[in-house]
Amino acid sequence: MGCCTSKVSALEPLPPLHDGVCHLTADSPGQIRAQVEEMLALSWCGSTEQAPESGMSWCYDPQACGENVLGPLVAPPPEQRMMHFRFVIRFCVTQAIKHGGCFYLTDPDGKVVSAAIGLPPSDKNIHDPGMCEMMSIINKLGSPPPSFSNKDFNRRDGEVRKVMTKMHKKHASGRHWYIYCMGTDPVSQGKGYGKRMMQWMSAVADNSRVPCYLECSGTRNEGFYGSFGFKVVGKEPIKAGKELFDANGGLVSMLRHPS
Question: How far is 49 from 15, CA to CA, in rounded Å?
Answer without folding.
Answer: 36
